[in-house]
Write a structure and sequence with these properties.
Layout: H1 20-45, E1 49-54, E2 60-65, H2 68-76, H3 86-132, H4 146-178, H5 184-187
Antiparallel strand pairs: 1-2
Helix pairs in contact: 1-3
């Protein structure tokens, strides 16, 4: 069995990453992972979620469902819902439905992406497997039975005939394009 090229998923020690580029990459990947989990939680349970993250460089990032402002207002007790205002309730309901639809589309696209990545991995493995197998013409003759030798002879003959036909076709095309053009007064014999 061939040795693995990568170490796979490794448990990493929880300490600050010293290399700045590695730290930024880890921040970006983990931030998207947190957003994905928050989106799934909101979709599955209908929870209202608000996340605010500042990058190591101080840039703010946020995620909110239904919105960060709505979650913050609710947390701070600033909800100013009017019991008789049905318009606000309808708008909010429509917004929640739309966000739910978008979250479902996003999750479906992520699922499709995972499927495509898995398919790509399988294709790469199949390609590697084919690259390690010898081509039919590289197989030692003493390992081939009589029937396979006859098939190989036929295949070589067909290849040779195809090659000669293409060679003749290209040679004819090249020679006709290299011949000097016939002038119209040379084409007709002179009248005596």
């Amino acid at each position: 069995m061939a040795a693995k090229k990568t170490r796979g998923r490794q448990k990493i020690e929880m300490k600050k990453i010293e290399n700045e580029n590695d730290r930024m990459i880890a921040f970006s990947k983990r931030r998207s992972g947190i957003y994905k989990k928050a989106s799934e939680l909101a979709t599955l349970t209908g929870a209202e979620i608000g996340i605010v993250v500042f990058s190591p460089s101080g840039k703010p990032f946020s995620f909110g469902h239904p919105s960060l402002e709505a979650v913050a207002n609710r947390f701070l007790g600033l909800n100013q819902e009017h019991p008789n205002d049905n318009t606000h309730l309808l708008v909010e309901a429509h917004r929640r439905v739309r966000i739910s639809e978008l979250n479902q589309q996003h999750n479906e696209l992520l699922r499709q992406l995972d499927e495509e990545n898995a398919r790509e991995k399988i294709l790469k493995q199949n390609r590697k497997g084919k690259e390690t197998q010898p081509h039919w013409w590289e197989t030692p003759v003493n390992e081939i039975n009589h029937q396979e030798l006859l098939q190989m002879d036929t295949a070589v003959d067909d290849l040779h005939k195809t090659f000669l036909a293409k060679l003749n076709e290209k040679t004819a095309a090249a020679s006709s394009s290299m011949a000097p053009p016939i002038k119209s007064d040379e084409a007709t014999p002179p009248n005596d």
